[in-house]
Design brief:
mainly alpha; single chain; about 0% strand
């Protein structure tokens, strides 16, 4: 169950640095709010896969449900109910505004993870062939 994957940990750090750069330097209306949400589920997925030898599907679904749960806590204004509206860290981690667009971004992020994992596994199963050749056989 527990193990260590340097590859997934490296991806976690790359995604974390990307997320930090987005948060610090991009103040637009698309990349920061939507692409950041798209990437954050990938970051969480890679972090979990760094230390747990769980199936791709179970990990992906668990991460998606977790992201949806956090988003629902925004709908119920958890930060305000806990009296943390002045705490920038809590507002950043938990969030303060619900959006269906965020739910869609999380979902598309996990779909992308599943597609990338499928491609990776197909390429490993048939070294030297690309996925299009494998599908035609």
């Amino acid at each position: 169950m527990f193990y260590f994957s340097p590859k997934y940990l490296l991806l976690t750090f790359v995604l974390l640095i990307t997320e930090i750069c987005i948060a610090l330097f991009l103040h637009d209306r698309f990349i920061r709010p939507y692409f950041g949400d798209f990437l954050v589920v990938m970051l969480i997925y890679c972090f979990v896969r760094s230390f747990l030898n769980a199936s791709v599907w179970r990990t992906a679904i668990a991460v998606l449900l977790f992201a949806w749960f956090i988003e629902m806590m925004q709908y119920f204004q958890l930060v305000q109910r806990l009296g943390l509206e002045n705490n920038k860290f809590a507002r950043t981690i938990i969030g303060s505004s619900f959006g269906w667009e965020d739910m869609a971004a999380y979902t598309f992020g996990i779909i992308t993870v599943l597609l990338l994992e499928r491609k990776k596994n197909t390429c490993q199963a048939f070294p030297g062939r690309n996925t299009w050749q494998v599908k035609l056989l």
